[in-house]
Each structure stands twice: as structure tokens, then as C-alpha cells.
Amino acid sequence: MSQIDSEAPVLTKAEKKTVRIRWFLVGFLVLGGVVNYLDRSTLSVANTTIAQEFGLDAFQMGLLLSAFSWPYAIANLPAGFLVDKFGPKKMFAFAAGAWSLVSMVTAAANSFGFLYAARVALGIAESPFFTSALKVNERWFNKSERALPVSLVNTGSQIANAIAPPLLTFLLLTMSWRGMFIIVGAFGIVIALVWLRIYRDPTLKEQSMIKGAEAEARVVATVEQVAWGQLFKHRNTWFMVLGAFGIFYTVWVYLTWLPSYLQTARGFSLADSGWLASLPFLCGIVGVVFGGWLSSRLVQRGVGTVRARKIPIVGGALLAAASVLPVAYVDNTALAVALLSVGYFASQVPIGCLWTLASDIAPSNQVASLGAIQNFGGFMGAAVAPVVTGAILTATDGNYTLVFLIGGVLLLVGALSYGLFVKERPAAAVTA
């Protein structure tokens, strides 16, 4: 812990103000994450409704559900660079305004092509959000503190995932799917305007209070800064990409197909599936916070920062695999939902630590870049997951067995990639 947190009783007035500001920013980023993921979840919740209106089969819906992820993944690469260059204030505000406008325009869709193009645009527009959040955390927290605030920011997505099924289902049933897209899009406009009003970077004095000697070490570490493209020459970068691919693949099977699975494979109505689908996502909120807490606790006990990130990442991925794989052979609905809930909890334990790991091993002015490259790998998995799932369901007449088997295996790939191949490096190296 830093001085300003560990010696709270003797904080000066300036130090207290710094603490308030940075945790307020974390809270607002959580809210931003909720709105961000509500926009992403609209199509998943309206899956069966839109499929019926446009006459889409499972494979076509899989293509539509993946239309967000692959442009999001690719756009993360320049987005990370742009956040490092222009800062989180401008890039987050731009992203929130852009994704909100896209969401509202989607309400006018009258064809598969229109919907597909809108989802592509949404993926591009949302790409700077989490890299901006990572940059904010890197600027306002020192290395030993960072895991918890980064994980808390990632709870925004899990809160959204938990409330999206019942909330968006309610909007869909009362306002149609088009009204749902408009209302959710309007939330983001408000977020963008407020962010422009409230955000600022820490002053030099605040940076000194927050990071102390770490600030000087960062300066030394970045004297021989390599170009952005050089990050791809390091083994750690590639195994972070592969590991994120494996973990995010299964997460996005949940995010895009869970409501449909509950309706088609388990026989729940649209209204009932909206509430039931929220259970795994509520567990996901706990998983993200637990991962950040565990990593911070390990650092406090003297465990190296990189190892302290890898333990929750690997442990969470292994537990998720052990929970997801049996679902393929479970007939009891209650047990299946319980396993899915444990699996999603475990799959979220690594999420905050993945982002924190990038901030730990990258120079200060490449934190967003390395985080974005890792996120690129994750969302390539997210892009593939809906299409592969849709193809499997089309070929097997709606049988989800192979869906869960592939998800479990890829979780194991993610655990092995981080556990065995992401190595600690000297502090001055890009992949330290």
C-alpha cells in the first residue's frame, strides 16, 4: 500500500483530496463499464426476437453476434496507442459518445446487413474504453495498489451482465427491441458529457504522493523505450494474447448464447430466462472483485507482482474449466445452472488481473498499448465464439454438448499460457 493509504490517520488535506478524487474516478469508470456492456448486451437479449423478425437461423445469428467482437479486437490495437498518445479523458469521452450514437441508429435497422454493419461500428467505437480505464488506474495508483481498482472497474461489465437480462428484457417487452436500443444508447451520451466535466490527470505533486520512488523508477525504465511494434517481438506478449483468447472465448459463449440456451435447451420462457440468466453474471461480479482482492493480498504478503497476478488468472481459468466441462453431460437443470454460475464466477477471477498484469510489465507510456494487444487476443476469441457456437448448433440441431467441451478446453489453454509461458522480466524491460 502507498503512504497515502497505509497511514490514513496522518493524511494531509491535500492527500485526502487525492484519495477522494481517485476513488471517485474509479466509481465513475464502474458506471461507465455498466453502460458500455449494456450496449453490448442488447443483441444477446433480443437474440430470439430479432432472429424471428428477420428470419435468421442459428448460424446467421452467430455471425451477427460475432460482428461486434472482431472489429473490437482489431480496433483495440490502434485504440491502445491512441489512449497512450491523447490520454484517457479525450478517448473515453469520444468512445462513449460514438458507441451511444451507434446504438441509437441501430434501432432503425431493417435488414441483416444493416444490423451487421451497426454491430461492426459498435465494436470499433467501444474499443478505447477499457484501455482508457487502465490508463486512468496507472496514473492514479501505484503498482502495489493497482489490482483492486482495476478489478473494480471490470465489475462494471459484470454488473451490466447481471442486470442486462432482466432490465433489457423488460425494455424489450414494453418498448420493443428498437426502443431498447434507443434508451440504452441515451445513457452513454450522459456518461460522455459528465466524463468531460469531471476528469483530470493527477498533478505532479499528486503523482509524487501516489507513486513516490516508483515514479523515478518508471522514468529510468522508459529511457530506452522501444517502438509500439516492438512489443510483438517479446514472447510474453504472444502468450498473453493466446491466454486471453482461451479465457474470453468461453466468457463470450455466456454473453452471447446463455439466454438462448436457457430458452431452447432448458425450456424457459423469454421472461423467465431473463432473470435466470442473471445468476451466473451476479456470480461474475464477485469473481472479478475476488481476483483483484486476492492479487493485492498476495502482493502485501511479499509475492512478486507478476506472480501475484498469475495465481488468480491460472486458478480461475482451471476452476472455470472444471465447472464448464461437466455441463455438457448434465440433465438436471438446477445443477446445470449451478455449474454455469460457478464457471462464470471462476472465469471472471482472472479478468481484472489480466489488465493489471499489462500495467505491471509495460513502461508507463505503453501501458494502454500492451493492455490493448492482450485485449485484442481476448476479443479474437470473443469473435470466434458466437460463430463457432452458431455453426455447432446448426449442425447438431441445437445440441450444446460440443459447445461446452470446446469452451472448457480453451479455458485450459488459457491457464497453461499464463501459468507456464508468461515469465517475469527485469523491471526495465518492456515485458518485465
Automatic annotation (TrEMBL):
Give the membrane topology, semicolon-separated if more than one: Multi-pass membrane protein
What are the TM regions of this chain, as residue ranges?
21-38, 58-79, 91-110, 179-199, 237-255, 275-299, 311-329, 335-358, 370-394, 400-421
Query: Has UniProt tagged this entry with the keyword Cell membrane?
Result: yes
Provide the protein's localization. Cell membrane
Keywords of the record: Cell membrane, Membrane, Transmembrane, Transmembrane helix
Matches recorded under SUPFAM superfamilies: MFS general substrate transporter (SSF103473)
What domain of life does the UniProt record list for this protein's source? Bacteria
User: Start and end of every Major facilitator superfamily (MFS) profile domain?
Assistant: 25-426
Q: What is any Pfam family matched here? A: MFS_1
Which CDD domains does UniProt cross-reference here?
MFS_ExuT_GudP_like (cd17319)
- PANTHER family noted in UniProt: FI19708P1-RELATED, SOLUTE CARRIER FAMILY 17
Name used for this protein in its record: Sugar phosphate permease
Origin organism lineage:
Bacteria, Bacillati, Actinomycetota, Actinomycetes, Micrococcales
